[in-house]
């Protein structure tokens, strides 16, 4: 297996808050963030769903030394802001002589990348800076350049599983000795006419426009689609021995990774959730854990009728007794390529603080999702927990976290 990998830093920029502490505090309280779209006119664009989970202010306010709005798309700005927090949280200083940039990897995913920037440039002569604001790998690129990360550098684009895949790849970097530390996660800023409109055309979004705060309701019998969101989650991953040498205190260890493909359908998950079940099995095998050892599942749980039911199928067939399940998308909405990374950061804090956050808006059980959903904040010791992700194209990801 190689070296053990731990999480020593967390950074979050989400609709709940522009730091990890703000996001965690609001998430624990069960706050929801969906509201009317104001960046463009959904009615004028012919879009049925007129709500989204957006970041309230500018997460990259002027004065942030790392942000250059001339060269960064919004998705990259979110990632750089979250990465700065994760690096500081881990106690690293890229200007310190002991910082070894050639041993530091970057693995940051995005599904839509610079979609708003692409829309803005369409139909006109692009500026010389257009490509560096829109290309999918530039979130990782800008983070790497901002913090002098000279090790492996990648950007998975595996739809809504991308953030989880980016973390899994970074774990491999550290296990195999390609890096000692890794800045890993995901980011997306898809609230634009094309971003919202494309999912709306597929009937994937909630149309609970009159009560947006109740629209995202994972696993609930009255769910009618997800709420699109923007945000970024970044983990500072580190070899356990490297962290110990500098006296860092980890949130949790990442002990298992799993990746599978459904080979079934472009948008619909496989019957019985079989692809996601195999993904979880692989992650647990990688961690050397039996399903019975798992204390908690941080689910993908998007609030779509079919997706949630298939995920529930996967959990019921894997576990003899399904452990407590939560989906943070009830509060945060669906951040696409950022989702798995944001949820991984939340899971690391859940383990460190012994807290399972609630699934907001879960009120009416659905027989098709007959699993134990956590509807109120729960204080409990978590030794082993898993997080799941799934994306269009039938791609799946799972991670196993353990208490240290």
From TrEMBL:
<feature type="domain" description="Ketosynthase family 3 (KS3)">
    <location>
        <begin position="2"/>
        <end position="403"/>
    </location>
</feature>
<dbReference type="GO" id="GO:0004315">
    <property type="term" value="F:3-oxoacyl-[acyl-carrier-protein] synthase activity"/>
</dbReference>
<dbReference type="InterPro" id="IPR018201">
    <property type="entry name" value="Ketoacyl_synth_AS"/>
</dbReference>
<protein>
    <submittedName>
        <fullName>Beta-ketoacyl synthase</fullName>
    </submittedName>
</protein>
<dbReference type="GO" id="GO:0008299">
    <property type="term" value="P:isoprenoid biosynthetic process"/>
</dbReference>
<keyword id="KW-0808">Transferase</keyword>
<dbReference type="GO" id="GO:0006633">
    <property type="term" value="P:fatty acid biosynthetic process"/>
</dbReference>
<dbReference type="Pfam" id="PF00109">
    <property type="entry name" value="ketoacyl-synt"/>
</dbReference>
<dbReference type="InterPro" id="IPR020841">
    <property type="entry name" value="PKS_Beta-ketoAc_synthase_dom"/>
</dbReference>
<keyword id="KW-0414">Isoprene biosynthesis</keyword>
<comment type="similarity">
    <text>Belongs to the thiolase-like superfamily. Beta-ketoacyl-ACP synthases family.</text>
</comment>
<dbReference type="InterPro" id="IPR014030">
    <property type="entry name" value="Ketoacyl_synth_N"/>
</dbReference>
<dbReference type="InterPro" id="IPR016039">
    <property type="entry name" value="Thiolase-like"/>
</dbReference>
<dbReference type="InterPro" id="IPR014031">
    <property type="entry name" value="Ketoacyl_synth_C"/>
</dbReference>
<dbReference type="Pfam" id="PF02801">
    <property type="entry name" value="Ketoacyl-synt_C"/>
</dbReference>
<dbReference type="InterPro" id="IPR000794">
    <property type="entry name" value="Beta-ketoacyl_synthase"/>
</dbReference>
């Amino acid at each position: 297996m190689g070296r053990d990998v731990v999480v020593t830093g967390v950074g979050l920029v989400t609709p709940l808050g522009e730091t990890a502490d703000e996001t965690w505090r609001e998430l624990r309280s069960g706050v929801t963030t969906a509201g009317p779209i104001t960046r463009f006119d959904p009615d004028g664009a012919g879009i049925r769903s007129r709500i989204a989970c957006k970041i309230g202010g500018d997460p990259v306010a002027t004065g942030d030394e790392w942000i250059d709005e001339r060269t960064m798309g919004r998705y990259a700005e979110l990632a750089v802001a979250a990465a700065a927090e994760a690096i500081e949280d881990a106690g690293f200083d890229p200007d310190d002589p002991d910082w070894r940039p050639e041993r530091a990897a970057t693995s940051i995913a995005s599904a839509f990348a610079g979609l708003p920037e692409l829309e803005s440039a369409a139909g006109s002569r692009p500026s010389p800076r257009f490509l560096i604001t829109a290309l999918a790998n530039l979130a990782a690129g800008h983070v790497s350049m901002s913090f002098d990360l000279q090790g492996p550098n990648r950007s998975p684009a595996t739809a809504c599983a991308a953030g989880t895949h980016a973390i899994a790849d970074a774990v491999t970097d550290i296990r195999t000795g390609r890096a000692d530390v890794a800045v890993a996660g995901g980011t997306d800023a898809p609230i634009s006419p094309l971003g919202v409109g494309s999912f709306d055309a597929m009937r994937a979004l909630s149309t609970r426009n009159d009560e947006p705060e109740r629209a995202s309701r994972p696993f609930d019998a009255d769910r009618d689609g997800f709420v699109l969101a923007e945000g970024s989650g970044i983990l500072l991953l580190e070899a356990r021995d490297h962290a110990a040498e500098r006296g860092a205190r980890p949130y949790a260890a990442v002990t298992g990774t799993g990746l599978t493909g459904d080979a079934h359908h472009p948008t619909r998950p496989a019957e019985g959730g079989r692809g996601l079940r195999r993904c979880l099995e692989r992650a647990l095998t990688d961690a050397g854990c039996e399903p019975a050892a798992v204390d908690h599942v941080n689910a993908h749980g998007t609030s779509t009728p079919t997706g949630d039911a298939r995920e529930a199928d996967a959990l019921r067939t894997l576990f003899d007794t399904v452990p407590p399940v939560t989906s943070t998308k009830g509060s945060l909405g669906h951040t696409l390529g950022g989702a798995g990374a944001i949820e991984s950061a939340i899971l690391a804090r859940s383990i460190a603080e012994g807290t399972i956050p609630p699934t907001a808006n879960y009120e009416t059980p659905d027989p098709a999702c007959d699993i134990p959903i956590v509807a109120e904040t729960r204080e409990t010791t978590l030794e082993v927990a898993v997080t799941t992700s799934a994306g269009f194209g039938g791609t799946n990801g799972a991670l196993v976290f353990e208490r240290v």
